[in-house]
Amino acid sequence: MAKPRVTETRIEAGGLSARLLRSRRRSVSLQIQTDLSLLMRAPLGASESFLRVFLEHRLAWVQKHRARMERLRAADPVPTWTDGGSIPYLGGRLALQVSPSLGQRSTARRSGGRVQVFAADPGDAEAVRQSVERLLAREAAELFPRLLAECLESPHARKLPRPELRLRAMKARWGSCDTVKKIVTLNTRLMRHGPDVIEYVIFHELAHLRHRAHDARFKAFLAELCPEWRERQDRLSDLILD
Ligand SMILES: [Zn+2]
């Protein structure tokens, strides 16, 4: 049997994982796809170890560009909240499907990669937006306590007081911490970011339970809690869009 012209496998190195397409080409290339996954193209005969070194050496480049792409995506134009649009969700996007409902109330539900909204008037963008926000707030109410519990399990967080968790849709901040009453408040709109970014916000607020100001000691403690905090903070968009 003739050798296939293109073979597809996976390659992993330095914490990165890429689809590997080997073909009759001479050079190695690495691309970040729009879904942030990696695609490596390589000659048929290139050795695995060479390709792993190649991938490892591009770790910083991949992190930088993925961060930029995620930031751009998170700061995407405001969704149009109409049928056929899409909304940011946990670092990716969900397709938005809007259909007429029988009743007056709009409802939203998520199935797989899409959100279905049933609205009395499918053209009423504000009603669609509100029902999607209610859906995301319900999901946040399930997800965020779990993420907080996981963060509190991390070795450096064990000695911290157990804070009360509150959730709110906020416009100006992603989270806050009442260090006296030991209350951590998280913005339900964090649902648009990946779980690792949400975790960073939780670690940030937990770090305030020990250090109030954003000083050197705060940052040192935050780095203990979450060594990747700078890269994750970088992916947190500054803008909180409606
Ligand atoms: Zn802070």
Structural class: alpha/beta
For the sheet with most strands, the description reads: 4 strands, mixed
Output the helix-strand order. EEEEHHEEEEHEEEHHH
Low-confidence stretches: none
Give the strand order, joined by hyphens, for the main sheet: 1-2-4-3
Instruction: Please estimate the helix content.
Output: 25-40%
Strand content: 25-35%
CATH topology of the largest domain: Zincin-like
Mean pLDDT across every amino acid position: 90
Distinct ligands: zinc ion
Anisotropy-based shape:
flat
CATH superfamily of the largest domain: Metalloproteases ("zincins"), catalytic domain
Terminal Cα span:
58 Å
Number of helices: 6
What's the gist of this structure?
With 242 residues, the protein is of the alpha/beta class.
Structure, described:
It is a single chain. The longest helix has 29 residues, at about 125-155. This protein folds into two domains: about 5-55, no CATH class; about 75-235, Metalloproteases ("zincins"), catalytic domain (Zincin-like), CATH 3.30.2010.10. It is α/β, with parallel strands linked by helices and about 240 residues long. Helix 2 (about 60-75) packs parallel to helix 6, helix 3 (about 125-155) packs across helix 4 and helix 4 (about 195-210) crosses helix 6. A four-stranded mixed sheet has the order 1-2-4-3. The protein is about 35% helix and about 25% strand. It contains six helices and eleven strands. Bound molecules: zinc ion (ZN). The site of zinc ion has 3 residues, from helix 4.
